[in-house]
Amino acid sequence: MNSFGTRYRTLVFGTSHGPFVGCTVEGLKAGTPVDVAQVQAQLDRRRPGQSLVTSQRKEEDRVEFAEGLREGVTGGEPLVAIIRNQDVLSKSYADVARVPRPGHGDFTARMKYGGKSDLRGGGQLSGRMTAPLVVSGAVARQVLAPPGVRFYAHAAQIADVVARPVTPEEMQANVERTPVRCADLEAADRMVAAVEAARSDRDSVGGIIEGTVTGLPVGVGEPFFDSVEASLAHLFFSIPAVKGVDFGAGFRASSMRGSQHNDPFIVREGKVATATNHAGGILGGLSTGMPVTFRVVVKPTASIARPQRSVDLETLEETEIAVTGRHDPCIVPRAVPVVENAAAMAVLDLMYQGGFL
């Protein structure tokens, strides 16, 4: 299915090298204000060609609201947004239907769809499809801003360079100050060097995006299958290249004792809080009122210029393929705003489900 959500529902459509990509959003109340400039600002953070550490594909990524928005407010019908594809070089993908690229969905898509799907640029499996996610998330953020829900993320690790722990305030202040979107400015310089080293070696690197959601009231989430973790992880894993997600202490909890991992309840400024936040702001699948914290693992970009082993699917003979075209040596910096806005999609749907809005 190409849709997500129960009360705030998003359907994505299009392909990487087709005429456009876009989304249809349902669930917004009539009269909801939508600032198109704010949506565009989030898209601008995601678009390619902004620095040497990203793809040099030049896409303006101008969002067009074809339906559902009049004079800056919703009319109650579905919101339809389109982003036109402009800078495509489809000839770079002439052979992928026959010789699949390692690390890509070429082989699996050919087997599933019988060779009929559009594989240029990855087709509907491409990272290009995250642009509609950003649009939907950017709209959701505007609905969530008045009650004080905020979203932050940054590159906590690229290759073997690990940033120090940072606060949401540091993320907000520093994330756009470096091309790798790391709030630890000293680590950011070393991350840039790691990306450039991989590029010069015709290779790529991955990393970890760390994020925080603040301002959630207690009790957001719907047991059993629409818990906060389940909803966020569902969307995060829908982002191409994401290979792992954890919350709070996450996988580190495996080496902790219960006495270490349990967050003691305290009173802070007249409200119940926790002294620590190993649970990542979630207990029983419901928000605790503490910041929701998560980490998202992003694999190295699959498209690399180095020769790699593959198979000619017509002859079933082993061969080599070297990927041409314009690709990110590291997708992490462009994925940071995607993670933020995907989180907003999930949170708004849960808050609508729970009657918080």
In short:
The chain has about 350 residues and is of the alpha+beta class. It has helices at about 35-45, 105-115, 130-145, 170-175, 185-200, 230-235, 260, 330-355, and strands at about 5, 10-15, 20-25, 65, 70, 75, 80-85, 150-160, 160, 205-215, 240-245, 265-270, 270-275, 280-285, 285, 290-300, 310, 315-320. The two termini are about 25 Å apart.
Q: What does this protein look like?
A:
The protein is an alpha+beta fold and 357 residues long. It has a single domain (3-353), classed as 4-Layer Sandwich (Chorismate synthase, AroC fold). Helix content is 26%, strand content 24%. The protein has eight helices and 18 strands. The protein has helices at residues 36-46, 106-113, 130-144, 168-174, 185-200, 228-237, 258-261, 332-353; strands at 3-4, 9-14, 20-26, 63-67, 69-70, 73-74, 79-84, 150-158, 161-162, 207-214, 242-247, 265-268, 271-274, 282-283, 286-287, 292-298, 308-312, 317-321. A five-stranded antiparallel sheet has the order 1-2-3-7-4, with helices on one face. A five-stranded antiparallel sheet has the order 9-8-10-16-11. Strands 5-6 form a two-stranded antiparallel sheet. Strand 5 and strand 6 (73-74) form a beta hairpin. It is globular, with a radius of gyration of 21 Å. The model has no long low-confidence stretch (mean pLDDT 92).
